[in-house]
Design a protein that fits this description.
mainly alpha, transmembrane helix, 16 helices, single chain, mitochondrion inner membrane, membrane, LETM1/MDM38-like, elongated
């Protein structure tokens, strides 16, 4: 009797626990029917803080881009000349910043892999060389901008003297051609002085055969003939020691060669000689890297830039002629030793003065 009552009590207890109450039953029916009160749990979740920040940044960027586009169209329509200067300056800043980031990456790789400058690829070497020149030119603007309110004067000077104060990134396409022609005219003025000095040192050459070769070369160049490669390489010994070696050049000849390489001449002779030797060594290292890469791997702009650096005014010369001239230069440069770099320096005049398309 007692046992049956215990079993009945347990059955009643389990039944009350399992059987849902009317409210619960109604709730389950509404859930199954899709009629629950309020929104589903997932729809009431808020976005994470990171998603909110990304959404806000995207919205601000979109609005800023739209406003910037309207501003550009306004300037282009009502102030076309100022718009050209504005776009050139902004694009120049972006290009200069990108060049700085690339130079930093190249230097980091050099430090990481213990690589020297002359062991880099041609494009990396040329990028570092050009970026150093650009930064040096911008350094002057940074100095004169230090005094209070001097930045207004700097902007005026940049507008009035863009060739002297700004780097190539801030030149318009027309200015790039005009300024390169101006710079080439400057170095062309040094060509007669360099050739005159070569004629003066002919009696100082001890070897009779080399003296005859030098006389023939100077005569041919003065007649307007482009010299052959073997005629220049035949004079290697003259430029390795007295009287045309790098350490034996006269101070006036050093200044003339500096102008031919577009380097400043407002330095003492000792510093001019050292800088000229360093610059020629860098070009020689670039030539070896370029010969390893191959001229055919260069773009048209890279070929023209390489020719201009080495003394040829490539702004008005066809791309195929530039490649031919650059191949001649490399053939001479790669056959020279470090002690014969004075010939490579004079080659800026010897190989470019009478090339087809350069005489005007």
């Amino acid at each position: 009797m007692a046992l049956s009552r215990l079993c009945w009590a347990r059955t009643a207890l389990w039944g009350s626990a399992v059987t849902p109450r009317p409210y619960v039953t109604r709730r389950l029916q509404l859930v199954r029917a899709g009629l629950t009160w309020g929104a589903p749990w997932s729809s009431r979740l808020h976005l994470s803080p990171k998603a909110d920040v990304k959404s806000l940044i995207s919205y601000v960027a979109t609005k800023t881009k739209a406003i910037n586009g309207k501003y550009h169209r306004f300037l282009e329509r009502y102030f076309p000349r100022f718009y050209v200067l504005y776009t050139t300056f902004t694009k120049g800043l972006q290009q200069l910043w990108a060049d700085g980031k690339k130079s930093r990456r190249i230097k980091a790789d050099m430090a990481k892999h213990n690589v020297k400058f002359h062991q880099l690829s041609y494009r990396d070497m040329e990028h570092l060389r050009q970026f150093r020149r650009d930064v040096t030119k911008c350094f002057f603007l940074g100095i004169i901008s230090i005094p209070p309110f001097a930045n207004y004067l700097v902007f005026l000077l940049m507008y009035l003297f863009p060739r002297q104060l700004l780097v190539r990134h801030f030149w318009t396409p027309k200015q790039q051609i005009d300024f390169l022609n101006i710079y080439h005219d400057i170095r062309k003025k040094s060509h007669p002085e360099i050739l005159s000095y070569l004629e003066k040192v002919i009696p100082l050459i001890s070897d009779e055969g080399l003296r005859w070769h030098m006389t023939e070369l100077c005569t041919k160049i003065q007649r307007g003939t482009h010299p052959a490669i073997h005629e220049i390489l035949a004079l290697r010994k003259c430029f390795s020691n007295h009287p045309l070696g790098m350490n034996q050049l006269h101070a006036l000849q050093i200044k003339a060669l500096s102008r031919a390489m577009l380097l400043t001449t407002h330095l003492p002779s000792l510093l001019l000689r050292r800088r000229l030797k360093t610059h020629t060594t860098v070009i020689h290292q670039l030539d070896k890297a370029l010969a390893k890469l191959g001229i055919n791997q260069l773009t048209d702009q890279e070929v023209k830039s390489a020719c201009y650096l080495r003394g040829l005014n490539s702004t008005h010369i066809a791309e195929e002629r530039c490649r031919t001239w650059l191949a001649e230069w490399l053939q001479i440069s790669c056959n020279l030793k470090e002690a014969e770099l004075s010939l490579l320096l004079h080659n800026v005049v010897l190989l470019s003065i009478n090339y087809i398309g350069t005489r005007r």
